[in-house]
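REVIEWER CHECKLIST
Item 1: Sequence provided? yes
Item 2: Single chain? yes
Item 3: Sequence as submitted:
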Amino acid sequence: MVAGRRLQPTKVFDTYWRFAAERQQVYQARLRGEPRPWTTDSIIASHRFTNCYRAADRVSQYLIREVIYSGSQDADEVLFRILLFRFFNRISTWRLLQSPFGDLTWAAFRLDRYAEVLSEAFSHGERIYSAAYIVPPPNLGAQRKHTNHLLLLQQMLRGGLRNKLQACCSMAQAFQVLRSYPGLGDFLAYQLLIDINYSTVINFDEMDFVVPGPGARDGLRKCFGLAARGIEADLIRYMSDAQEEHLNRLGLNFPGLNGRRLQLIDCQNLFCEVDKYARLAHPEITGCSGRTRIKQQFTPADEVLTSWFPPKWGINSPVSVTNAT
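Item 4: Structure as written out by the authors:
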């Protein structure tokens, strides 16, 4: 019984937990530097899935280590770096801007110069945005999408975003602050909120608030059917609250992230991933989008895999970096 509804989970509900356990085992095997194959699950072995914990993903790891906690910890500077990075959500774009400017700072920010560098790269066919998710451009009068995002960044910092966020008494209030800016819909505002909450600018519990994204709604539909409609956030909270019960029921080994349980954001993301996984594992069960295949194949990157998290979480181990190949 969730939110007053008696639900009848589909077979994808148990797949959610089995997928989470297996995906976490793959992550840990890679951290230990074990050679492939890391799993006997052919779907996980062949296709790209994010980690169970959002903060453990490659781009989030770069954000935490190289963007948030590298450089001045002044709140405006931290916000500037987070927003600049996530509006493009691409490590190569961050490095592209670092090349001429060195440290990327709000104090030295020149919108025209940043726009010029990005326009030059774009004119040469370079991708400056990630394909991970769409970051819609705000309509602020510029011709180029990237210039509009720089204008939005400038507007947010000049408009006192720091003070607005730090005056919030809850994660939900902080979400509404971000949601009020042009171009920031529910999904992107929530993702940015989680990123900012990795820093010391704000300090909310990740269990305070969740916003189900489109992919998560697909996964929820596959796990619970039409009864999930309208209570998606309640169901995500149920999954986090009941995780040990169902992992134990299925006899699954899931040690968490250095003892950290799956938080609301992680359970939300897992619904996105189980939606993709179920396209092949349970093709007879459909979600909202009607998608039937997984677009991205898994290709291991020849790079260092990091495992370092916001220090305020208290879960970092002395040795947290190993080879990912």
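Item 5: Key structural point noted by reviewer: The chain has two domains: 11-56+209-299, 70-198.
Item 6: Recommendation: ____
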